[in-house]
Structure formats: C-alpha cells, structure tokens
From TrEMBL:
Name of the protein: Adenylate kinase
Lineage, top ranks: Bacteria, Candidatus Magasanikiibacteriota
Record keywords, A-Z: ATP-binding, Cytoplasm, Kinase, Nucleotide biosynthesis, Nucleotide-binding, Transferase
Family statement drawn from the similarity comment of this UniProt entry: Belongs to the adenylate kinase family.
Binding residues for AMP: T36, R41, K64, L65, V66, Q100, R168, R179
Subcellular localization: Cytoplasm
UniProt comment concerning the protein's domains: Consists of three domains, a large central CORE domain and two small peripheral domains, NMPbind and LID, which undergo movements during catalysis. The LID domain closes over the site of phosphoryl transfer upon ATP binding. Assembling and dissambling the active center during each catalytic cycle provides an effective means to prevent ATP hydrolysis.
Origin species: Candidatus Magasanikbacteria bacterium RIFCSPLOWO2_01_FULL_40_15
GO process terms (BP): AMP salvage
GO cellular component: cytoplasm
Amino acid sequence: MSVNKKIIILLGVPGSGKGTQARFLVDDWGMAHVSTGDLLRALEVDPNGDDNDKQKLADMKAGKLVADDLIYKLAFAEIERNLALGKSVVLDGAIRSVEQAQKYNEFFIAQGVNDSVLAIELTLSDDLSFKRLIKRKVCADCADIIPYAVDNETKTKCEKCGGKLITRGDDNPTTAQKRIEEQGNAKLQPIVAYYRAGGHLVSVDGSQPILDVDTQVKKILTD
Ligand code: AMP
C-alpha cells in the first residue's frame, strides 16, 4: 500500500495508542516505525551505548522529558536511514514540545520532505490515559504493546514472538501520574495547535476500539 505522506507524526498523550497504531502501519503497510521511547529503552540496555547519553536517561525513569539533543541524535539518524530506503516513516512520541516540532521541521526541510508531513492526533482524556498506562503490558523481547484488556493480568506470553510480557518500568502509578503531568493534554495542545496552524493536522478519537482507530488512520493516509 502506498501512503500519501512521507512523514506521519502520531501525537497523543501517553497510552493514547500511538505505538499500537504505528505497529499496524508497519505490519500492514511496511512503513518504518521511529519510536523515541523504544530508541531510548534500547540505548539503556546497549552495552556499547555512550555513557554521557545514558546519563540523560535518568529523566525517562522519573517520567520527565529527556534532553532534546539526545532525542534529535537518535531520531534524525533513524528517519534519514529509512527515508534513504524509500520508506514512509511513522513517528511515535518523537515530538513532545513546540520547540521539538520546530527543530524537526528544519530537519524535514533539509531532507526535502516538509511538503509531505501529516500529524495525526489520537485524542484521549488524561483520566483514560492513566487507566490505560497502569494496566497495559509490553513484550520484553519484541516490544509489542498489549493494550489494556480485562484479562491482561492472566497474559504472560507474547502472541507474536513468545517473549515474556512485562509491565514497563515507567507504567507504575506514581511515574504514570508524573508522565501525565509532564506529557498530558495541557502539554500536548500547543503542539497540536502548531500543526493545525500549518494545516497539517487531523484528529482521531483515540478512545474508540483499536481497530476502529486503525481503520480511520488508514483512511486518512489513502484519501
Ligand atoms: P514512550 O515510550 O513514547 O512513552 O516514551 C517513554 C519516555 O521516553 C517518555 O516518558 C520520556 O521520558 C522519553 N521520551 C520519549 N520521546 C521523547 C521526546 N520526543 N522528547 C523527550 N522525551 C522523550
């Protein structure tokens, strides 16, 4: 499936479904997935990772935003690599402030893709964000996300790869609350306004069932 954009920016509060929707686009349409959260978690366990960079991960563990320079270093290299392969790139959580949005915009201009950018906001209340975060699980091996479902507590094995399902370190109630203060709707709206002002924003109700969100996102990308 060829999508009508080179860069898809998924915006939304934590737990709004950015990672889940990004994975549908990767699995079904072969898009490249750039999740800064995944890149940071990979750095954390990389024995060859730069020590200076690793020190900046303390903020992630505390539920705060990580230093911009580390985000740009990790994300821009991944985006550039995938654009060179001719892929469309879906950005998941990669832009969390207006300052970052501006910096990415400069990067998109330099890459010649600034005319092919679309931001999709997955809307969700802060309340639902909290509820979803403390109930979800992830695969320790393939990073697949198991969104909240009533039977989550009984699930132990990843259906995709057989890996062990765990609760992410920052999905505990204290850190989840902190993340919502730092990355909830109050912080998200100026970023949404930035893309709306540029005419590059579409919103989808992220509280709908996952497959309904998937259908709407894919429709937007092929209309
Ligand atoms: P996520 O997996 O997207 O929920 O991200 C996990 C954590 O990584 C966030 O709570 C932040 O601490 C950090 N992080 C991810 N993306 C960014 C970003 N674009 N800017 C700053 N910090 C980020």
